[in-house]
């Protein structure tokens, strides 16, 4: 049941912060600010040096089962290329797994441990294969290669597919993606670029708040 609840929470939140950085400490700071700004689903990518340390630190502090809003967050791992990486992240506290591509072995492992897995797909064939493997949410990646109308095209033959565009989603087009049928969106560098450039990580919280407001407006 935990997997079902996690999927419900992720889709209810609707915005996933995809975090990259130079150190685990930097990513933890980004995550804290994103959570403060209202984005409660955090994806720590495995391109971060010592990424598992960041996942473990965040998983100890935040929980998807917390009744305290300040301590509620769903911590996951991104850029999981293989099942070994996914399993290590799960043992470090990751509650969901995201990959840049469809790796059947990774999907099998996540299904075994009842962990939501969101593989990156670009084609109808990849999405169909993902569904056949038991994937609940497909990451449309890279999203900047498509327009929101792509979701309607996908849902023509595959109306049962739940699509989460990632890459190229911004404040200016988030509403279009949601209204087109995206079940959630992944936000990457646009969330953190200003903060990294200026060294002021409170800008992540400010931008996160703007994304949450844009998401709520689109859903309304």
From TrEMBL:
Belongs to the KHG/KDPG aldolase family. It comes from the Bacteria. It is an enzyme of class 4 (lyase). Keywords: Carbohydrate metabolism, Lyase. InterPro entries: Aldlse_KDPG_KHG (IPR000887), Aldolase_TIM (IPR013785). This is Bifunctional 2-keto-4-hydroxyglutarate aldolase/2-keto-3-deoxy-6-phosphogluconate aldolase. One of its GO terms (molecular function) is 2-dehydro-3-deoxy-phosphogluconate aldolase activity. NCBIfam families: eda (TIGR01182), PRK06552.1 (NF005119). It comes from Paenibacillus aurantius. Homotrimer. Its EC number is 4.1.2.14, 4.1.3.16. Pathway: Carbohydrate acid metabolism.
């Amino acid at each position: 049941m935990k997997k079902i609840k996690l999927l419900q929470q992720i889709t209810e939140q609707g915005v996933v912060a995809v975090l990259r950085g130079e150190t685990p400490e930097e990513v933890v700071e980004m995550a804290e600010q994103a959570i403060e700004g209202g984005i409660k689903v955090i994806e720590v990518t495995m391109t971060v040096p010592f990424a598992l340390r960041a996942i473990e630190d965040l998983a100890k502090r935040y929980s998807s089962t917390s009744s305290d809003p300040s301590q509620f967050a769903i911590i996951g791992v991104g850029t999981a290329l293989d099942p070994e990486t996914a399993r290590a992240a799960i043992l470090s506290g990751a509650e969901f797994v995201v990959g840049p591509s469809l790796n059947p072995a990774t999907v099998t492992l996540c299904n075994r441990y009842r962990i939501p897995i969101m593989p990156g797909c670009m084609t109808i064939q990849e999405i169909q294969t993902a569904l056949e493997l038991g994937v609940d949410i497909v990451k449309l990646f890279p999203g900047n290669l498509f327009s929101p109308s792509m979701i309607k095209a996908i849902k023509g033959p595959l109306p049962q597919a739940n699509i989460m565009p990632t890459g190229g989603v911004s404040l200016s087009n988030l509403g279009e993606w949601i209204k087109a049928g995206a079940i959630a969106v992944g936000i990457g560098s646009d969330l953190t670029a200003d903060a990294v450039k200026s060294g002021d990580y409170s800008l992540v919280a400010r931008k996160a708040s703007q994304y949450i407001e844009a998401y709520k407006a689109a859903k309304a």
